[in-house]
Amino acid sequence: MQLAPSTRPGFTSSSASAAAHQLCRSSSPIKRNLRANGLLVKEPYTSRIPTPVQTEEAVGYEKQQRDMTAGKPPVDQLFLAKAWNFLSGSSGAFVVPYIPLLLSQHGMSATQIGLLAALRPFLAAPSQMVASAVADKRKVHVRLLLFAAVVSCALRSSLPLADSVVLLFVLLLASEAVGAPVNVLADSTVLSNCKDAGDYGKQRVWASIGWGAASLPAGLLISQAGIASGFMVFGLASIPLVCVASQLRYNYSSATAATASAPAPAEQQQHQAALQAPAGAEVHAAGAADAQQEQEQRQLSMRQLLQQPAVLSFLWKCLLMGFGLGVMGTYEFLWLKQLGAPETLMGMALLMNVCTEVPAFQMQGAIMRRMAAPSLLNLVLAATALRLAAYAALPAAGNPWAVLPVELLHGITFGVGFSTATVYSGKLAPPQLAATFQGMWQATYAGVGAGVGGLLGGLLMERCGGQGLFMTAAAIVAAGGLAGACVEKTAEALQASKAGSLQHDKVE
């Protein structure tokens, strides 16, 4: 409250203030009389609740929304997502496949390369999980993305400058540890701006387009000018990549809505049980149970999430897919080199990858509408085992160029697998754990799985050669996928039986 100054002689504003406040403490009718005489007026209401501290990223997103309301042209986040993916894929094609060759040029054996390949993802896995958890808690997804992208690109570009194996070892591990959260945070940011989860593949496909567009020029450049030239191009291409990343915004409101609207497996089972219930069942009670279960799903902790059979089965499949990825990504080009393949063939192999990877990402939404995610991941594991076995059979073909048709399986083993896992993880996790669970499955996939593949692959290649390596890896993926599918079917049958008995008891 504040006092209105009086116009009467001898009655000052300070004396009116003191008198009015003294009277206000004693009686509310006196307040009304003071207001009627113009001595007491209301102050504008000011909330005593402190304004929550907002991150720069959240403020940036709110500014974007105000600009849209004011009629200013907003920055198209989906266009930026496409640009980010294109630049990321095209720049990576000059570096990622050729790191094992760079290590080999420094005199490292297959076992040493395998050890390094194993250490890289094992360092990356905790980095991914910690960064994604911090981003979820502090709402700093893009700021962490920018930091990780700048530092990791600088470290990776400097790899050819290392004059010793030890320095190369340190730079490579540091670049992997710092750069590991980049893909996780970028995928979470892109997903948050998609109106529908099926739109993710339409953005991610541009990474495949960029990879395919740069793969053949990268192979030609490296075959003519050496591996160092590819790292130089990567460093230059990282500049526009970082500029695009600085304009990305994480849409916190739609990310929550999109994730919350996705039905959890338990909710789907309860809905099916309700459809099978006889007429006259307690509909209101079932509706209340649905609402309660949805609330419980939103309040799940990571520990509770990891106790769900569907989540454990999903992570097991990610581990197997990552194992196959680690073997193929680390030793395919070394195997082709042993078979006499030139770098130009390696570039063409990358180009063949894109021929099926692009349609796989583009049609991701339609594919997931026609086939359940667990079944799709089983298909991915079968294709991975087949691809590994085909690499083992290359000597029988008598020509390393026979690898090109095998690369067409990449659309299933990576395109379908990665997009399905990305979208499915968003359906399994509650909103507050969206990026955290993204980090967990990618750490399992590209961290633990790829690390085990790299380590075991090096030992097998030293003892059994490339053919023995790929045949053994194919058997491991096939056996693991079959065992996982059997356990999954058994768990589903037990859950269905339990749900049926509970429904029967409720009706009685």
Short description:
This protein is mainly α and 508 residues long. It has helices at residues 13-24, 28-36, 56-69, 77-92, 99-105, 110-138, 141-157, 165-192, 200-225, 227-245, 252-261, 265-276, 283-298, 302-305, 309-338, 343-362, 364-370, 373-392, 394-397, 403-406, 410-428, 434-507, and strands spanning 2-3, 40-41.
Give, in order, the helices and strands.
Answer: EHHEHHHHHHHHHHHHHHHHHHHH
Number of domains: 2
Give, in spatial order, the strands making up the sheet with the most strands. 1-2
Which class of the largest domain in CATH terms? Answer: Mainly Alpha
At CATH level 3, the topology of the largest domain is: Growth Hormone, Chain: A
CATH superfamily of the largest domain: MFS general substrate transporter like domains
What is the CA-CA span between the terminal residues? Answer: 64 Å
CATH architecture of the largest domain: Up-down Bundle
The dominant shape is globular
Number of E strands: 2
Give the low-confidence spans. Answer: 1-13, 43-54, 67-73, 255-291
Spatial extent as radius of gyration: 30 Å
User: Proportion of β residues?
Assistant: under 5%
Label the structural class.
mainly alpha
Helical run tally: 22
**Biggest sheet overview:** 2 strands, antiparallel
Indicate the mean pLDDT.
Answer: 78
